[in-house]
Amino acid sequence: MASGTFVTAVNCMDGRTQLPVIEYLSERYAADYVDMVTEPGPIKFLAENDDAAIVESIRNRVAISVNAHGSGIVAIVGHDDCAGNPVPRETQESQIKKAIVLVRPWFPGTEFIGLFVKDNTIVEEVK
Question: Could you state, in order of their start, the residue ranges of all structural domains in the chain?
Fold first, then answer.
């Protein structure tokens, strides 16, 4: 087990979303480190669950964070102006919820939250 407190974010590869998500999760959960699992538009792949290679890759990377680093929190993240998933916020929020339904059984005992990065700076929880 790694030293320090870890949380995990399944986030878009878009560099504009990285710091806001890291800062939000670090503050919200008093985490020392945020493991980033990035993919262009990952919520689309998880919600649709029709590209087994990408879904399995995301699962394997989250597993490293949960199992090796002891992360107990996994955030599933969408954002404005996503080139990999160019759909409205409402659609992305639905995808985030579907993605959480898919990934939750993979890691029992882990807390999953949905986040949306608005205007590339403001992180809001998806309820």
Answer: 6-126
Longest dimension (CA), the chain: 39
CA 73 vs CA 43, 50, 57: distances in Å? 17, 25, 19
How are beta strands 73-79 and 111-118 bridged, if at all?
A: parallel
* Cα–Cα distance measured from residue 93 to residue 77, given in angstroms and rounded to the nearest whole number: 9
| Cα-based torsion angle of the residue sequence 65, 55, 118, 31 in order, rounded to the nearest 10 degrees | -10
| pLDDT tens figures, 93-125 | 999 999 999 999 999 999 999 999 999 899 999
Cross-strand partners of 117: 79, 123
Euclidean distance between CA atoms 50 and 119, whole angstroms:
29
Q: Which CATH architecture has domain 6-126?
A: 3-Layer(aba) Sandwich (3.40)
pTM across the whole model: 0.95
Type of residue found at 25: L
Q: Is the pLDDT of residue 1 over 60?
A: no
